[in-house]
Amino acid sequence: MGTGWMEAEHELFGFPFPELKTRLGWLEEQIQDVRRYWGERPEPHLIVGGSGRSGTIRPAAKWADEYNTIFATPEECAERRKRLVEACEREGRAPIPLSLMTACAIGRTAEEAGERIRRRLERAGQTVDPKEYKASRGPASVLGTLDEAAEQLRAYEQAGVDRVMLQHLDHRDLELVALIGQELAPLVA
Fold first, then answer.
1. What is the pTM of this model?
2. Dist CA 77 CA 82 (whole Å)
3. What separation in angstroms does the CA of 97 have from each of 66, 80, 105, 128, 148?
4. Counting C-beta atoms within 10 Å of the first and last residue's C-beta, which end of the chain has fewer, N or C?
5. How many CA atoms within 13 Å lie on the side-chain side of 159?
6. pLDDT tens digits, 45-91
7. C-alpha to C-alpha distance for 67 and 127, rounded to whole angstroms
8. H or E element in which residue 105 lies
């Protein structure tokens, strides 16, 4: 659950998109409602998303099972982890897991990774050279060869991230999914 951030999606589906302060208030109410609705029944794993500010961290620390953040560097994740732990302590709870969703374009070779980065940029309507993109996105994405990706994932682990959701968006590239599961995962396990 989160406040929503893409105004175009809200317009497309006919949902209001008020200022952030209002959406944060709605988020807190909705989280409470979800928890009340489930009551004593088995509950779903409730993930609250945000960028590490109190408007999402505080309600997550109170009611959620996990806090998810997006496109953050390991340093930003470490700071968000710290704020999350402190918020959980204020609520009298053990710290909840911190997860991250971030961009992913990897390959067995630099050339294969570069091709995936190029396709990602193309889909987004960008014409940046893949090498420049990799340098500019740097530690806020998982990009490059398997060894480089494993190193980046270990940096997130050191920053307190419990789980990483790798967003690749090229749904026809099933080879990348296999590469992540069969070759990257064992490197960081």
1. 0.81
2. 8
3. 5, 11, 25, 35, 25
4. C
5. 26
6. 999 999 998 889 999 999 999 999 999 999 999 999 999 999 999 99
7. 33
8. strand 98-107
